[in-house]
Structures are given as structure tokens and as C-alpha cells.
């Protein structure tokens, strides 16, 4: 840059700084004028300064969410403490008022105070008065925090009055009570949407959700229905504005009530079918709202994922409330719905869901399928079913080139292997004749072998773990599992032919020889491939250790002679062949 050009650039910067300084001075004067006004309100003839930029289509900013309106700025710093104290007093007053209403309704029933009609009408009158006061405070006095607190308390009183009229007095049928509750909750959230006030929405929802159980006094299907209504009513507003706190406040009470209802129904004689239907509705609404949130508000992925994970949990935990087949179908339905969501987002371009949300849906569906499998089948067949599902997922991972599907296959294989250690191929089967499992042992051993080979091979092919080809610990662990599975299958096959002491000894001879042969094959194939040679170098000492430490102590008579002679002859032949290959490599 030449000297004149540099001088022009410096002058331009100086001009910009001058303009910024003038704007800051004007802003400082405006703040001083507002702070000097006695009531903190603008003068009668003045108007609020319009915002410099239009609202973002994504919703209000953090400041708008905190103060509840697009045209209300935070107070000056010297008044901040007084404003905070006012907000706390207003909301605490609303909470105490709600508790007083709840206690009055419950105590009036217990003591016989007044008539049920008078109680219901009194609740309607109190709620309407609080709503009117909130509207007046918001519009006339300019105290928005007080208006929010009064309006939220009024809507909560009306909602709780409907809950009491439905559950305590029987004035409304359940369907009518739920309809009236939906209208009241929708009205409160519509007002919050009109005022662009997240505090009003959260306060109304939390007031209804926290106090409703105090009226019903039991976590039954009706209570769950009233709590789900809050989530349904809040969904359009939270999707429109992206209010994450409202999303949590509306979804969490229903999930918690459903979980408590599951445990409640296990110990008390209640209508279990109604509980199952209610928690199923909680799951359905939660998954739908989570999916809509993820699509409309993709930046708010954490909230949507949390709802997707939490919502199906009450349904899966409700399995003990049903018969075995019914519980299996329930878990299968949950798994199918989540996997359909995953597939639709994975294979169609119209879904437009975040990748993390889609992966979470697939993982949750896989968990539900595991529960369905273990519910439908007896524990003796869990290993076979889970290992077959793991192999199917490996095939899906290869076809779709999906690391998520391969991770699911690994999880299925791990659970299936743990089940196999208990039922089909226990360690006792290799140490004692009494642990033989017959045909299931053969089948499970072969399935474990196929899984242990397929998963690392597919992971290497898809390059989901860049360091896998050079990870000796992982390959060593896979090798141990492979040796255990093949040994168990070999022993099970031999014991099918001859289930006595001689068959047990023959099985160990064959296991030792198979290990030695596998080590030699790896060494011969590893003349030019280093990782195969290293595998053979590791397996050969392991085979000899088994021969001298286990076979020598366990085998007797002719079996011991056969084991040592065959092993020695194979090693001699392999040594000669390996030496010739090395010599040929050297000459080349």
C-alpha cells in the first residue's frame, strides 16, 4: 500500500469512529432522560423508539424472552435490583395464590364447606378476576411483570377449577373436562403469544402442571390426560417462537406423571389398561412434538432430542402392567414408530431433520426392538435372536454405509454375547462336562464367530474408526472372543456325537489342534502381510500354553498322547514350510 492510500484509509477509520461516538452520546442522553423520570414511564406525549432492525423470523431474541415483549428494553442498571425484586414478589405471590386455591378446594371437600357448585363458581370468579386484573395492569399501569403473573395465575386457577370439577365433584365427564381444559390452556397460551411473553406461558403451564396432582391426589390416567393437554396447547406457541423453556415446562410434567403412574399401577389395584393407554398418548404426543420442533427449530436440537428420548420411556416401562404378548406388541409398536421416523428422515429429502435427531431416533428404536425381542422370547433364545439381529444390522451398515447401523450391531452383539455366556456357551462348558448345551451351543458359537468377524471387517471397510487397522488392543479383544466362540462351538459339536468323558477330551484335543493350525496359517499368510504375521505370533504361544498348562493337566492316557503328537507334527511341518518361504523371499 502506498503512502497516500494508507492516509486515506486512516481518515476513513477516523470518520467511522466519530460517527460511532456521536451515536453513543445520543444513546447516553436518552438513557439519562428516562432514568430521571419519577415513574420510570415515558412522558405522556412521547412514544417508544421503534427498533432499529426488524424482528428475526426465527423468533424473539434472548432479551425479548427475558422481558417478555419486543418493545420493552431492560431497565437501567441502577434500577435492575428493584425490577428483579418486583418480579420475584409478583411470581411468588401468584404461586402462593395457586396453592391457597388448591388447599381450599381439597379442604372444602374434606370438611364439607360450602356446596360443590359454589366452589366451582367461586373458582371461575376468582380466575376471571385475576385475568381482568392482569390485563389492566399490563395495559394501563405498564407493569408487564405484574400483568404476566396475574394472568398466569388466573389461567391456572381456571384450569385447576376444571380439574376439580372433573375429578372431585363429577360435574364434568372426563371428555368434557379435557375439552374445557384444552380451551383454557389454549387461551392462556394464545394470550402469551399475543403479548410475546414467554414468562406468561411458562408460568401458566407450570402452575397448572404442578398443582393438578395436588387436586387429583393420585397419578391416574385422568391426571396424565390433563398434563398432556398442556403440551398439546403449548406446541404451536413454542414452535412459533422457539421458546425452549416452555417446551421443557410443557413436556416434563407429563413424562414424570406417566413414570410415576407406571410404578403406582404395579402396587395398587387400578385400571392398568387405562394407564397404558395414557402413557402411550404421552409417548405419541412427545415424539410428534419433538419431531416438529427438530424440523421447525433445527438450532434447538438439544431440547428436541431430550423430548425424543424421554417420551417413549414410560411406554417401555409399562411392560409389567400387561401380559407378555401384549407387552411385546407394545414395545414393537414403539420401536417400529421410531424406526419409521429414522427411515423417513434417512431416505427421503422432505424430512429435513437434523442428523443428530435422526441418529437418536434410530438408537431409541433399536432399544425398543431389544425390549420387544426379550419380551416375546424366552431367555434361553435371547442370544440367538439378538445375534441374528446384529448380523442383519451389519448387512444394513454395509449396504447403507452407515456407521450408526454398525454401532447398533455392536450393541446388539454385546447384549447377545452376554446372554450367551449365561445360557448357551457358558465358560463351564469348556471346563466341565456338565456345562454342555447341545445344539444351541453349536448355533450360538457359530453366530458369535460370524459376528466377531463381520463387525471389525465392516468397520475397516467403512473406515468408521480411522485407527482401527492399527489398534492391537481392539484386534486382540476380537481375537479372544473368536477363540472362545470357535472353541465353544467345537466342544458342543463333539458332545453332540458323544456326550461322555471321552467326547469331552476329544473336544479339547480338537480345540488345541485348531488353534495351532490357525496360528500356522496366519504365519504362512503373514510372510508378506505384517498384521497377519503378528496375529500368528501371538496365537501360537497361546496354543502352546493351553497345551502345556491345561491339556497336560486335564487330558489323560491316549488323548494326551494324541494331542502332543499331532501338535508336534503340525509344528514341524509348519516350521519347514515357513523356513522355505522365508528363504524364497530372501532370494527374491
From TrEMBL:
<keyword id="KW-0812">Transmembrane</keyword>
<feature type="transmembrane region" description="Helical">
    <location>
        <begin position="199"/>
        <end position="215"/>
    </location>
</feature>
<feature type="transmembrane region" description="Helical">
    <location>
        <begin position="503"/>
        <end position="524"/>
    </location>
</feature>
<feature type="transmembrane region" description="Helical">
    <location>
        <begin position="328"/>
        <end position="345"/>
    </location>
</feature>
<feature type="transmembrane region" description="Helical">
    <location>
        <begin position="88"/>
        <end position="108"/>
    </location>
</feature>
<protein>
    <submittedName>
        <fullName>Putative membrane protein</fullName>
    </submittedName>
</protein>
<feature type="transmembrane region" description="Helical">
    <location>
        <begin position="304"/>
        <end position="322"/>
    </location>
</feature>
<feature type="transmembrane region" description="Helical">
    <location>
        <begin position="246"/>
        <end position="267"/>
    </location>
</feature>
<feature type="region of interest" description="Disordered">
    <location>
        <begin position="34"/>
        <end position="78"/>
    </location>
</feature>
<dbReference type="Pfam" id="PF10101">
    <property type="entry name" value="DUF2339"/>
</dbReference>
<feature type="transmembrane region" description="Helical">
    <location>
        <begin position="531"/>
        <end position="549"/>
    </location>
</feature>
<keyword id="KW-1133">Transmembrane helix</keyword>
<feature type="transmembrane region" description="Helical">
    <location>
        <begin position="273"/>
        <end position="292"/>
    </location>
</feature>
<feature type="transmembrane region" description="Helical">
    <location>
        <begin position="357"/>
        <end position="374"/>
    </location>
</feature>
<feature type="transmembrane region" description="Helical">
    <location>
        <begin position="561"/>
        <end position="579"/>
    </location>
</feature>
<feature type="transmembrane region" description="Helical">
    <location>
        <begin position="473"/>
        <end position="497"/>
    </location>
</feature>
<feature type="transmembrane region" description="Helical">
    <location>
        <begin position="221"/>
        <end position="239"/>
    </location>
</feature>
<feature type="transmembrane region" description="Helical">
    <location>
        <begin position="442"/>
        <end position="464"/>
    </location>
</feature>
<feature type="transmembrane region" description="Helical">
    <location>
        <begin position="145"/>
        <end position="165"/>
    </location>
</feature>
<feature type="compositionally biased region" description="Acidic residues">
    <location>
        <begin position="61"/>
        <end position="73"/>
    </location>
</feature>
<feature type="transmembrane region" description="Helical">
    <location>
        <begin position="404"/>
        <end position="422"/>
    </location>
</feature>
<feature type="transmembrane region" description="Helical">
    <location>
        <begin position="171"/>
        <end position="192"/>
    </location>
</feature>
<dbReference type="InterPro" id="IPR019286">
    <property type="entry name" value="DUF2339_TM"/>
</dbReference>
<feature type="transmembrane region" description="Helical">
    <location>
        <begin position="120"/>
        <end position="138"/>
    </location>
</feature>
<keyword id="KW-0472">Membrane</keyword>
<feature type="transmembrane region" description="Helical">
    <location>
        <begin position="380"/>
        <end position="397"/>
    </location>
</feature>
Amino acid at each position: 500500500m502506498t503512502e497516500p492510500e494508507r492516509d486515506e484509509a486512516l481518515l476513513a477509520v477516523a470518520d467511522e469512529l466519530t460517527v460511532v461516538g456521536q451515536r453513543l452520546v445520543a444513546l447516553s442522553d436518552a438513557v439519562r432522560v428516562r432514568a430521571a423520570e419519577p415513574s420510570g414511564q415515558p412522558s405522556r406525549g412521547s412514544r417508544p423508539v421503534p427498533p432499529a432492525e426488524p424482528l428475526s423470523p426465527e423468533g424473539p431474541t434472548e432479551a425479548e424472552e427475558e422481558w417478555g415483549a419486543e418493545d420493552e428494553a431492560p431497565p437501567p442498571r441502577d434500577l435492575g435490583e428493584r425490577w428483579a425484586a418486583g418480579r420475584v414478589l409478583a411470581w411468588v405471590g401468584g404461586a402462593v395464590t395457586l396453592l391457597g386455591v388448591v388447599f381450599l378446594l381439597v379442604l372444602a371437600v374434606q370438611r364439607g364447606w360450602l356446596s360443590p357448585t359454589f366452589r366451582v363458581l367461586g373458582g371461575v370468579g376468582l380466575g376471571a378476576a385475576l385475568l381482568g386484573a392482569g390485563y389492566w395492569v399490563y395495559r394501563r399501569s405498564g407493569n408487564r411483570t405484574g400483568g404476566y403473573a396475574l394472568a398466569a395465575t388466573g389461567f391456572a386457577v381456571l384450569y385447576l377449577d376444571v380439574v376439580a370439577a372433573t375429578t372431585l365433584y363429577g360435574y364434568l365427564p372426563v371428555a368434557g373436562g379435557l375439552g374445557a381444559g384444552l380451551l383454557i390452556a389454549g387461551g392462556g397460551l394464545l394470550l402469551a403469544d399475543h403479548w410475546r411473553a414467554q414468562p406468561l406461558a411458562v408460568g401458566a403451564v407450570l402452575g397448572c402442571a404442578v398443582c393438578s396432582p395436588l387436586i387429583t391426589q393420585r397419578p391416574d390416567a385422568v391426571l396424565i390426560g390433563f398434563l398432556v393437554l398442556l403440551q398439546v396447547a403449548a406446541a404451536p406457541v413454542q414452535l412459533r417462537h422457539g421458546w425452549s423453556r416452555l417446551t421443557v415446562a410443557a413436556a416434563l410434567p407429563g413424562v414424570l406423571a406417566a413414570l410415576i403412574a407406571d410404578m403406582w399401577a404395579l402396587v395398587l389395584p387400578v385400571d392398568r389398561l387405562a394407564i397404558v393407554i395414557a402413557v402411550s398418548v404421552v409417548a405419541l404426543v412427545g415424539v410428534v412434538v419433538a419431531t416438529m420442533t427438530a424440523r421447525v427449530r433445527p438450532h434447538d436440537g438439544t431440547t428436541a432430542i431430550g423430548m425424543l428420548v424421554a417420551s417413549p420411556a414410560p411406554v417401555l416401562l409399562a411392560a409389567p402392567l400387561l401380559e407378555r404378548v401384549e407387552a411385546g406388541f407394545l414395545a414393537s409398536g414403539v420401536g417400529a414408530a421410531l424406526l419409521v421416523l429414522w427411515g423417513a428422515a434417512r431416505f427421503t429429502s422432505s424430512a429435513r431433520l437434523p442428523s443428530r435427531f435422526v441418529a437418536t431416533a434410530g438408537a431409541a428404536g433399536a432399544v425398543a426392538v431389544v425390549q420387544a425381542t426379550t419380551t416375546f422370547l424366552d431367555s434361553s433364545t435371547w442370544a440367538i435372536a439378538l445375534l441374528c439381529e446384529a448380523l442383519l444390522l451389519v448387512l444394513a451398515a454395509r449396504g447403507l454405509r452407515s456407521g450408526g447401523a454398525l454401532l447398533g450391531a455392536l450393541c446388539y452383539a454385546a447384549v447377545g454375547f452376554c446372554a450367551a455366556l449365561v445360557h448357551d456357551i457358558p465358560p463351564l462348558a469348556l471346563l466341565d462336562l456338565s456345562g454342555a448345551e447341545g445344539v444351541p451351543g453349536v448355533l450360538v458359537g457359530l453366530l458369535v464367530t460370524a459376528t466377531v468377524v463381520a463387525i471389525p471387517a465392516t468397520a475397516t471397510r467403512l473406515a468408521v474408526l480411522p485407527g482401527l487397522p492399527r489398534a492391537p488392543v481392539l484386534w486382540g479383544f476380537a481375537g479372544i472372543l473368536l477363540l472362545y466362540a470357535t472353541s465353544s462351538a467345537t466342544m458342543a459339536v463333539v458332545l453332540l456325537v458323544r456326550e461322555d468323558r471321552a467326547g469331552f477330551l476329544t473336544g479339547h484335543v480338537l480345540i488345541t489342534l485348531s488353534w495351532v493350525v490357525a496360528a500356522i496359517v496366519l504365519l504362512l499368510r503373514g510372510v508378506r502381510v505384517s498384521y497377519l504375521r503378528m496375529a500368528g505370533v501371538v496365537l501360537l504361544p497361546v496354543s502352546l500354553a493351553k497345551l502345556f498348562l491345561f491339556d497336560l493337566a486335564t487330558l489323560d492316557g491316549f488323548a494326551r498322547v494324541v494331542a502332543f503328537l499331532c501338535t508336534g507334527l503340525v509344528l514341524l511341518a509348519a516350521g519347514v514350510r515357513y523356513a522355505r518361504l522365508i528363504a524364497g523371499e530372501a532370494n527374491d
